[in-house]
Automatic annotation (TrEMBL):
The protein's name in its UniProt record: SCP2 sterol-binding domain-containing protein
Pfam families: SCP2
Organism whose genome encodes this protein: Streptomyces polyrhachis
Domain SCP2, first and last residues per copy: 27-115
Highest rank taxon of the organism: Bacteria
UniProt xrefs under InterPro entries: SCP2_sterol-bd_dom, SCP2_sterol-bd_dom_sf
Length: 117
């Protein structure tokens, strides 16, 4: 999967947003956060920012470099890992425990995020 682009990462976040929006039951409840979000793509020197609201990721924007501010939920990973997480080929808990995915969030938000990825 070498050669992941900024556009590939944006598409992965859009797919994640769509699947969150279609979630039912407990997953729907987990997706109902209202939090600022940043996802730093470390190998592309790009950060996506947005807002988790109404069960979706809204207002997704790409900015060059590290996160411009402190979002309530901050993620950092490679573009390949983002795509693998969204596509279900990478387990979030294992990726987080091994350091492939870095997360800065409150404990309740972290637990909810874990159920979504």
């Amino acid at each position: 999967m070498a050669g992941t682009t900024v556009e590939d990462c944006r598409a992965a976040l859009e797919r994640l947003s769509a699947s969150m929006g279609a979630a039912q039951g407990d997953l729907r409840k987990a997706a109902s956060l209202d939090r600022s979000l940043s996802c730093e793509i470390t190998d592309l020197d790009t950060t996506f920012t947005g807002r988790l609201r109404d069960g979706r990721i809204q207002d997704i924007r790409a900015v060059a470099g590290p996160p411009p501010g402190k979002a309530q939920i901050r993620l950092a990973m490679s573009g390949d890992d983002l795509r693998a997480l969204v596509d279900g080929r990478l387990n979030f808990a294992k990726a987080w425990a091994s350091g492939r995915v870095k997360v800065h969030a409150s404990l309740p938000d972290l637990l909810r995020l874990r159920s979504l990825l």
